[in-house]
Design a protein that fits this description.
There is one protein chain. By secondary structure, this protein is α/β, with parallel strands linked by helices. The protein has helices at 25-42, 53-63, 75-78, 85-95, 118-131, 150-159, 177-183, 204-217, 222-242, 286-294; strands at residues 19-23, 47-51, 70-74, 102-106, 137-144, 162-165, 168-171, 195-200, 246-254, 257-264, 297-303, 306-314. Helices cover 38% and strands 24% of the residues. The strands form 2 sheets. The protein has a 7-stranded mixed β-sheet, sandwiched between helices. It starts with 18 loop residues before the first strand and ends with a strand.
């Protein structure tokens, strides 16, 4: 079995390296991840592991004493909103360790991700290639062949320039991250019974009050209501400044979550809007960045006809 992306000579040319690791079972998972981590530690490279909790425990135990040299994050919490992973997990670690190569294992897609979450996950994996272009960073992304369907694996081949499995490492002939970004930029399904309010710049205080009132009625606690107030204020202000001067906000309850949607006539042209650190975002997106940090999930559909952003909060 050849599942050793950390071995010399297997990484593709170029500063940024982004392989997908396709594994079946714990043995293959460890065969692909443990050598990757140990190779980084042996080279004196900063190493982070951001995977779901069960995989975190498995890998940590396999590394033994070497685990103390690794930064560990539970991806099911730190990355429950896929839009938060680039700025809040990957860039946060890489930007604190400049001047040499950084290694990260990031597993943003696992069995149990919801149908609402998955499109944002696939776009995230595609956007990593833009966010880290030219950086001395290696991000290895494991994919569970037993627990994920064939469509997810096909998307992984399109979002990763290199794939690794039991047969070894090879260039992905299906690599097409821009296609994946666009393929999942789809109109969002209509809710059954939303409450609705139109707004302009003068109505922003009323929009905040509207969102807080209905968020609480739909089951959000005080802390989550406060987060929703901040999120809707940022999105509505963006609509007024960049989306034609006005917009519409809608709220509804959905499967234990409260969903708040803001739509306007603008178009988001920067695919990394909301995923860059604030001081690295010359094209705006600061409001969406804040929303990504506040929300449990953010979905976006944008095009010539306008932009829809949905914010999901756990009730």
């Amino acid at each position: 079995m050849s599942l050793r992306p950390g071995e010399p000579g297997v990484a593709p040319a170029g500063p940024f390296v982004h392989p997908a690791l396709f594994y079946l079972g714990d043995e293959e998972y460890l065969a692909g991840t443990v050598p990757f981590v140990r190779a980084g530690l042996d080279e004196g490279e900063p190493v982070a592991v951001a995977v779901p909790a069960a995989r975190l425990a498995l890998l940590r135990a396999a590394l033994g004493d070497a685990a103390g040299g690794v930064a560990w994050l539970d991806m099911s919490e730190a990355g429950r909103n896929p839009g938060r992973i680039i700025p809040g997990v990957l860039r946060d670690f890489a930007d604190r360790h400049v001047g040499g190569r950084v290694r990260i294992i990031g597993e943003p897609i696992w069995p149990g991700r919801s149908a609402a979450e998955y499109p944002a996950c696939a776009q995230h994996e595609a956007l990593i290639n833009l966010a880290f272009a030219g950086r001395e960073v290696t991000i290895l992304c494991p994919y569970d062949l037993a627990g994920l369907d064939a469509g997810v694996i096909a998307d992984a081949r399109a979002t990763h320039p290199v794939v690794i499995d039991r047969d070894g490492e090879r260039v992905s002939a299906d690599y097409a991250p821009h296609r994946v970004i666009q393929d999942y930029n789809l109109p969002l399904p209509e809710p059954a019974d939303p409450v609705t309010m139109g707004f302009d710049l003068h109505a922003l205080p009323l929009v905040r009050e509207f969102a807080c009132r209905w968020g609480a009625r739909f089951g959000l606690g005080p802390s989550a209501v406060g987060d929703l107030e901040l999120a809707v204020n940022e999105l509505a202000a963006n609509s007024c400044l960049h989306g034609g001067g006005a917009g519409t906000v809608r709220l509804w309850a959905d499967a234990g979550q409260v969903v708040c949607e803001v739509r306007d006539a603008g178009t988001i042209t920067d695919p990394l809007a909301g995923r860059r650190p604030v001081d690295m975002s010359p094209h705006g997106g600061r409001g969406i960045l804040m929303v990504n940090h506040l929300a449990d999930l953010v979905r976006v559909h944008t095009g010539p006809g306008g932009t829809v952003i949905r914010v999901y909060m756990r009730a």
